[in-house]
Design brief:
alpha/beta; two-stranded antiparallel ribbon; 35% strand
Length: 156
Amino acid sequence: MNFTSPTKGRMSVKDIVKDIACFMEEEPTGSYKLIIGTDSQSRQNTCFVTAVIVHRVGKGARYYYRRKYMSNVRNLRHKIFTETSLSLDAVTRVKDELAKTRYKDMDVEVHVDIGENGDTKELIREVVGWVMGSGFKVKIKPNACGATKVADKYTK
């Protein structure tokens, strides 16, 4: 699984974790969060973008993204569940690599592109339960910036 860094280009999950560690070592007393979110946009095919973000709380962030194209994803439920599945896959891979470092206990959030307003409100209980049942904190809109801001930027 490869991601793209806006500044460093194509990177493996192992490379991302090394880069995250370097970023955190620049300011070791900082407070950090690992955020994973996926968004999508449908045209002829559906473009899914998963973002991995390391947020130095109050002092910026570094992020990486991955695009995946799928055909025939027109149903909102299918789209949201695919986004969530891609986020959980990415967070599991990143956490597995982080487990080999001193940052294995890093605070992790999965951001999902659902919220109380709009058609996705019917999916909140299922999706939030799925993510929490997988062992991760979950954020929904309007607090899901990993999905609604960073990942969304690269679906265009």
